[in-house]
Structures are given as structure tokens and as C-alpha cells.
Design a protein that fits this description.
4 helices, 193 residues, 26% helix, alpha+beta, seven-stranded mixed β-sheet, globular, Aminopeptidase
Length: 193
């Protein structure tokens, strides 16, 4: 069966929710107060909506879902105002949210391959960059983003008022690391906000 980046469908919902639950537990064990609210975010309703919009993507190897992430072409309203820095290129961008890997796949490269495939697809779409944010204390994610070529750009404020460290991966003529997008996602439907 091999390796594959693909858009999730509703049959993948239980696996994606389990991966996010494992990510939430990992963050708790690391002492990171991200995804720890009593509301259970990211919750099943949020993930269902991500899948329905065609924005939830998974990395699958030999039929096992090892990582998931949301990749959206819709403008992120909380990214309009950034302090202690600035976004690098101006113009159209994609956003990554809710990225997590299965506990069994942690540090084995599944998230690198998923993010690499998404970066490749977004760059081919002609966007200028990919943006993402994370908790200040989420050192594993912050190190991972730097390894993947993301630049720390400043601080953004979520709609809840919580601050997050903002990163951006501007595109150049260089080939992206991490993988290629087999069965490229249909980003056309993402253009309809």
C-alpha cells in the first residue's frame, strides 16, 4: 500500500480523533497548556467540520493513519494583527492547524512527510507561504517547525485572547523537504470560503 498524503473523509474521523487525543495527552505530559481546556478542543465537531470542508489531511502508511493536520486556504482572522515581529511575504497564504501524529509514529517522520507533502501542494498552488502558530511552551513543535524551514515571525492573539508564537514558511525556488503529494488534494474546493 505504501505511503500516502490524502484528504480525510468521515470514515477517518475516529482515527483522527484518536491521534488528536494522543497529541493532547503528550502535551499534558510535557507540561504544555495547549489543547488542555475542559471543552476538549479539538473536539469531534471541529474535526467533522474540517473534514467536511476538505481541509483535514492525513499521512497514511500501509493502511495506518499516522498523522493528521488541517491545511486551509481561507484567511485566518487572528493572523491579521501580529506583534513583536511581522509576517515575511505579504499575499496569499495557507494555514496549518491541529497538527498531530500518532504516539506510535512520534519521532519517526510521519509528521515531516505529511507537512512536506502539504507544503509541496500549497507551493504548486502558487501561494506565497504557509503560516502556523503554537504555544510558547510547545518546544517539540517549535523545534520541528524550525527544522521544516519555518521562521518565527512574532506573536498573535487567538480569538479566546490566548497568545501564540507565529511561524511562517515562505516559498522560494528551492525544493521542499519531507515528501511529495501523491493523490494531490483538491484545493479548488477550499477556495470557496
Amino acid at each position: 500500500m505504501g505511503q500516502l498524503c490524502r484528504a480525510a473523509d468521515m470514515r477517518d474521523l475516529p482515527a483522527v480523533l484518536e491521534i488528536l487525543s494522543q497529541g493532547r495527552e503528550y502535551l499534558r505530559q510535557q507540561g504544555v497548556n495547549q489543547w488542555q481546556d475542559a471543552d476538549g478542543y479539538p473536539d469531534p465537531g471541529t474535526v467533522r467540520a474540517d473534514i467536511a470542508r476538505g481541509e483535514c489531511f492525513i499521512w497514511e502508511e500501509d493502511g495506518r493513519i499516522l498523522a493528521s493536520a488541517v491545511c486551509s486556504l481561507r484567511e485566518e482572522s487572528t493572523y491579521r494583527h501580529i506583534v513583536q515581529g511581522a509576517w515575511k511575504p505579504q499575499g496569499p497564504y495557507a494555514v496549518i492547524h491541529r497538527a498531530a501524529s500518532a504516539a506510535s509514529a512520534r519521532r519517526l517522520g510521519a509528521m515531516s512527510r505529511l507537512l512536506g507533502a502539504l507544503l509541496d501542494c500549497v507551493q504548486k498552488k502558487g501561494l506565497r507561504s504557509v503560516r502556523i502558530d503554537t504555544h510558547e511552551d510547545n518546544r517539540p513543535m517549535r523545534c520541528f517547525l524550525k527544522r521544516m524551514g519555518f521562521l518565527e515571525c512574532g506573536i498573535i492573539r487567538l480569538s479566546s485572547g490566548v497568545l501564540r508564537v507565529a511561524y511562517e514558511r515562505p516559498f522560494s525556488a528551492q525544493k521542499q523537504e519531507g515528501g511529495t503529494c501523491q493523490n494531490p488534494p483538491d484545493y479548488g474546493k477550499l477556495d470557496k470560503s
